[in-house]
Specification:
Blueprint lengths: L15 E6 L10 H9 L2 E4 L16 E4 L11 H13 L3 E6 L9 H11 L2 E5 L4 H8 L12 E6 L13 H4 L4 E6 L5 H10 L7 E6 L7 E6 H10 L6 E5 L6
Parallel strand pairs: 1-4, 1-5, 2-3, 2-4, 6-7
Antiparallel strand pairs: 7-10, 8-9, 8-10
Helix pairs in contact: 2-3, 6-7
């Protein structure tokens, strides 16, 4: 039966979208609210890093639509993803837009919010465990340290072209008293590290690369910014990663 809109027409009433942060991949790191939304959803649009065991919480019979984007692989455009979200919601169903980590951190959330607002579709945002927090926990270190790391900053390792962003606040990035977390960093970190050293950050500044954090095959590489940059010049795996550097506590 078609639900009537408030105007009395036979147009289906607009559905509702829940933006759900799925955490880094470990389903045990999902929030209770995230699980509840997955179990109630009629459709789940999910990123690559939000697939696998996390989708085991989706309701049986729900439409599962992969819309993830990965560097170097064919991926749907952001405009296409946003339109899919609107199209599903317009059928009057409950939609979950499942994003890895926390949806508000380098998750292209703004574009999708604007698309829903333009279409007059209601939504909510359910935060998730950021990959940055998960990486620090996996390494048994804090992101902040009393008297040593009083500030944490999250930055992206590349722009829309895949290159290191040209507009960078190097004074902030080279701050020896801050913990810096670089998302999507591996291909551009050698260039970033060279720039950091040029701006006064010591080459032996501790660095940590976390790959596939939150998954059974996660790996942690402890190094310095100089040695990590050197290793990434030679070999770059396809595993998703982030890099932390600064006054990191020894594990």
């Amino acid at each position: 039966m078609t639900e009537q809109s408030p105007t009395g027409s036979d147009t289906p009433a607009a559905g509702f979208v829940s933006f759900v942060g799925s955490g880094p991949g470990d389903p045990e790191l999902l929030t209770l609210k995230a699980v509840a939304r997955l179990q109630a959803a009629d459709a789940v649009l999910f990123d690559d890093l939000s697939s696998g065991a996390v989708l085991g919480h989706a309701r049986a019979g729900a439409d599962l639509i992969a819309v993830g984007k990965r560097a170097g692989r064919p991926s749907p455009s952001q405009a296409h993803v946003s339109q899919l979200l609107v199209d599903y919601a317009r059928t009057g169903v409950r939609v979950v837009r499942l994003k890895s980590g926390d949806a508000g951190i380098f998750g292209r959330l703004e574009e999708e919010i604007l698309a829903l607002r333009d279409a007059g579709i209601a939504f909510e945002i359910i935060p998730g465990v950021s990959a940055a927090s998960a990486a620090a926990a996996a390494a048994a270190i804090p992101l902040t340290r009393r008297l040593a790391a009083r500030r944490v900053q999250f930055v992206t390792g590349h722009d829309v072209t895949g290159h290191l962003p040209e507009q960078r606040n190097m004074a902030a990035l080279a701050d020896a008293d801050a913990t810096t977390v670089v998302f999507m960093p591996k291909r551009t970190f050698p260039a970033l590290a060279a720039s950091l050293i040029d701006h006064g950050l010591a080459p032996d500044t501790p660095a940590l690369m976390a790959e596939n954090v939150g998954h059974p095959d996660q790996s942690l590489t402890r190094a310095t910014i100089a040695s990590l940059a050197e290793s990434l010049r030679d070999t770059v795996s396809s595993k998703p990663a982030l890099i932390l550097y600064g006054p990191l506590m020894e594990p």
